[in-house]
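User: Run a structure prediction on this.
Assistant: Running it now.
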Amino acid sequence: MTPTPQSTTTAAFHVQAVLSFAVSLVAVGIAVVNLPADPWVRAFLGLGVLYVTTSAFTLAKTIRDRQEITTVVGRVDQARVDKLLAEHDPFAVR
């Protein structure tokens, strides 16, 4: 039986990552709002920030999904090998 993979991140690291993301997004939002430019320029930059943010989430999700699929396929293959080895008796007469 293969052991389940353990999470390599701690709760503190998760909180730090979330807070860092939130602070950076708020900082860019404040900078875009206070930018000395026409409203349409600020709106364009704001939409650009939102697009980059959603694209980053989508990229992270697809990378995570691909990694999970690879892990599951690896575990299934390992289970098949373990089953074959468990059923194999080198001293059996055929």
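The chain has a mean pLDDT of 86.
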